[in-house]
# Entry
Amino acid sequence: MNLFDVYSLYDIEPVSGSGSYVYTADGTKYLDLYGGHAVISIGHSHPAYLKRVGDQLSKLGFYSNSVKNSLQAELAERLGKISGYEDYSLFLCNSGAEANENAMKLASFHTGRKKILAFDKAFHGRTSGAVAATDNPSIVAPFNQTPNIEFAPLNDIDVVVQKLSTNEFAAVIIEGIQGVAGIRMIDDDFLRELRRVTQEYGVALILDEIQSGYGRSGRFFAHIWTGIRPDIITCAKGIANGFPMGAVLISPKFEARKGLLGTTFGGNHLACAAALAVLDVFEQENLVENAMNVGSYLLDELRRIPWLIDVRGRGLMIGFDVEGSAADLRRELLFEHRIFTGGAGAHTVRILPALNLSLDQAREFIEKLNALK
# Structure
């Protein structure tokens, strides 16, 4: 049997990692400024992470959600405290796409309405409802196409009002910062107005913080920059530093009932141990503050490079464009300078490193990038 050939692969195989570096079998070291799609939040093979997950594995790796799991309750308490959402409830699942599926389902149950409003260039996942709300027709199968998803131009509140005034929409879903679109920023005032009009029309506001959350923007969630409080928040990526996990933070206005949501693997013992280890490191090493400080340095230095176009982002969620091929630039960084970066379209480079990236490592990247032209 062969692997189903759906990924474009670099001819490099990391076999180990430490902090912001990964290593191939021959010992070649690469600076990782992409973190496996913003997943590595506390660095590769962090000792506290290895210990907590290893200790849990030696006791119990999994049991179903038909029994009590005190690790889930501990995670809910600590996540509520660090995020500022102590009055919200937590539903645990396995991925960002699953988190968004459950968020949209919950909004529809709550309002009794069918439609979801998303935005142009949005990416919310690849499962059925999440991919329907993703503005990329090439990954939406005929099976996924539905009249229950509509799109509006990003940062255009007038179109949003026009659609919500039909009273057909259960929810609006929006990313804190559009990641797959190339670090596309949401105007702060637009997000504040979006909060106001969704409340006016009785529509749930879902903040997809799967890539932009968990400290990446220099705040625990990117929407915190605007001062709003959405009805539902979804997160994944950095929540467990590579262990498959997703979460839905749910406003007290939503009433739970038995069987409303469910999952086999979500919130299992190993996943919770991994997520708790991440929060341990966040608190002990002040990672949200570090993301803000190192990210500010990178943004300032990148904006001084004359051949980069439209440097943008917050914290350690950074994008910039180049006139030529971003893929060529990324290959040069990878194969000539041993630096992993991310892409988005023909001209965009994304920087999504672990949140404990050091200033020295950031300087190393700037020096090597400057040397390219």
Q: What stands out?
A: The longest helix spans residues 269-285. The CA atoms of residues 19 and 43 lie 4 Å apart. The mean pLDDT is 97.
